[in-house]
């Protein structure tokens, strides 16, 4: 099956079979609207029903699948992705507009994510609990074990169409649960191609479906009580509304942020500049932990900002398939236009642009703003764009308070060589992760990942995702006496 421009539409993966529908879906190339990245189909209501019914039926198989079989399936998927690295990287770059260097890194991360799933499948251990803490409980011992909960509804976003989907599919297979994945309509071809690998890897029939679908049909997943867990990555406004309609099922939400980074006076400035350039502008800032607010100690403000502005102006904006490109297009013109409105608002409120600031179709240049009031959208909301707003601070407590002055709390980076500042940041920052001497954009695939406040509910990272995809059951052993 091929997804090259002009090729036959890619069929959709319905419970182990490849099907088409009468609702075609054209996939736009963000860098070249005149040449689509490919095409596929939206699933119909009947196809959705078939997928859910198949998942319910498949649970009878997956819940008893031994660890070595689950591990083998996941290792086969990992190896299959690795073998098709160049193909997947190019496809991801075409349909998502992600620079090819970053696209290939995402493919490499997916290789690891499925391999980690295999390892976690083989170490889903329980524990023994002594229960004889009082005379009436003498001669009793508890043994716990995790059991899969049942079919999982998964909705993944456009910005990491492979690896963020992998963070739902891999732990589902590892824990013995069927999964129906709704990939993003903007770039579903990557996961449909991975579905070919999943099929070849030996996943039980019906245990995995990858179905592009309309938002209306996707909404049905949210309230469908045949699913036992909803895992969603996307915008806060959508995610929290989903939780209200999810009923009794478990809900995991990986939502947005407006991540802060603190540059303390003891920081290694060259390292901080290098990492902040990546953290702010990689994939045109369309990362929920992208650097958006920078708080820089006043003693190093001039030195840091001079280096950072120079580095920003040296970034190459252009064709995502060019290996030299640092910053590609935004996902569509609507995203670039919204960014323009927010930047214009900030400038009208007294802000200054030290770099960038003007959209060119789907491309938005790396932008640095200063002197912006905290009430502006670029400060108070999630920009999801290649822009940062910089502020000076006098002491670490002030910087921490200003990072916390947000409805979001995903991750924060703290560049410091002061151990006390590092510990204070860890203890007081209201976020899901504190990254010392690196940007908040840092994530590796076996760490717990998620946010607080409006940034989400629950944690991903294979081991932590499995906790939500399983229930703890205890067996109490009593010795008659």
Task: Quickly describe the structure.
By secondary structure, this protein is of the alpha/beta class. It has two domains: 12-255 and 456-473, Aldehyde Dehydrogenase, Chain A, domain 1 (3-Layer(aba) Sandwich); 260-444, 3-Layer(aba) Sandwich (Aldehyde Dehydrogenase, Chain A, domain 2). The protein contains 15 helices and 22 strands.
Would you mind describing this structure in some detail?
This protein has helices spanning 45-62, 67-83, 85-96, 100-121, 163-175, 189-201, 215-223, 236-245, 269-281, 301-313, 333-348, 377-380, 396-404, 419-428, 462-468; strands at residues 12-14, 17-19, 24-27, 38-41, 128-130, 140-148, 152-155, 179-182, 208-210, 229-233, 250-254, 260-263, 293-297, 352-355, 367-370, 387-393, 408-409, 411-415, 433-436, 452-453, 456-457, 470-478. With 481 residues, it is of the alpha/beta class. Helix 5 links the parallel strand 7 and strand 8 (179-182). The longest helix is centred in the N-terminal third of the chain and has 22 residues, at 100-121. The termini are far apart. The model is unreliable at 1-5 (pLDDT under 50).
């Amino acid at each position: 099956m091929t997804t090259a421009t002009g090729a036959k539409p890619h069929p959709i993966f319905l419970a182990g079979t490849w099907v088409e529908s009468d609702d075609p879906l054209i996939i736009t190339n963000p860098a070249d609207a005149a040449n689509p990245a490919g095409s596929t189909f939206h699933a119909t209501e009947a196809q959705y029903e078939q997928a859910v019914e198949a998942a319910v039926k498949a649970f009878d198989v997956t819940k008893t699948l031994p660890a070595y079989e689950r591990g083998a399936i996941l290792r086969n998927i990992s190896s299959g992705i690795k073998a098709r690295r160049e193909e997947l990287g190019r496809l991801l770059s075409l349909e998502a507009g992600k620079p090819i260097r970053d696209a290939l890194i995402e493919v490499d991360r997916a290789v690891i994510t499925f391999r980690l799933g295999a390892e976690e499948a083989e170490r889903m251990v329980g524990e023994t609990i002594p229960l004889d803490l009082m005379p009436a409980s003498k001669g009793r011992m508890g043994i716990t074990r995790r059991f899969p909960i049942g079919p999982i509804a998964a909705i993944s976003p456009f910005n990491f169409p492979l690896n963020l989907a992998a963070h739902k599919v891999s732990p589902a297979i590892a824990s013995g649960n069927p999964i129906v994945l709704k990939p993003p309509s903007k770039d579903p071809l990557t996961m449909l191609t991975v579905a070919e690998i999943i099929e070849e890897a030996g996943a039980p029939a019906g245990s995995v479906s990858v179905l592009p679908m309309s938002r209306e049909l996707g909404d049905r997943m949210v309230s469908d009580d045949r699913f036992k867990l909803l895992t969603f990555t996307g915008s806060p406004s959508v995610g929290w509304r989903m939780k209200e309609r999810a009923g009794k099922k478990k809900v995991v939400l990986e939502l947005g942020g407006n991540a802060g980074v603190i540059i303390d006076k003891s920081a290694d400035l060259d390292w901080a500049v290098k990492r902040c350039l990546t953290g702010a502008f990689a994939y045109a800032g369309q990362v929920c932990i992208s650097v958006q607010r920078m708080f820089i100690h006043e003693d190093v403000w001039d030195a840091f900002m001079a280096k950072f502005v120079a580095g920003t102006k040296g970034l190459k904006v252009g064709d995502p398939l060019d290996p030299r490109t640092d910053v590609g297009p935004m996902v569509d013109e609507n995203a670039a236009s919204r960014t323009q409105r927010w930047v214009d608002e900030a400038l009208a409120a007294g802000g200054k642009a030290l770099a960038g600031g003007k959209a060119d179709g789907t491309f938005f240049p790396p932008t640095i703003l200063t002197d912006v009031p905290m009430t502006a959208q670029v400060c108070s909301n999630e920009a999801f764009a290649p822009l940062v707003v910089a502020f000076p601070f006098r002491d670490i407590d002030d910087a921490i308070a200003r990072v916390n002055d947000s409805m979001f709390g995903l991750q924060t980076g703290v560049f410091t060589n002061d151990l006390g500042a590092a510990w204070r940041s860890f203890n007081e920052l209201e976020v899901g992760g504190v990254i010392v001497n690196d940007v908040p954009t840092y994530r590796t695939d076996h760490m717990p990942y998620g946010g607080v406040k409006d940034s989400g509910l629950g944690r991903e990272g294979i081991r932590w995702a499995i906790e939500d995809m399983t229930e703890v059951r205890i067996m109490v052993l009593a010795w008659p006496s």
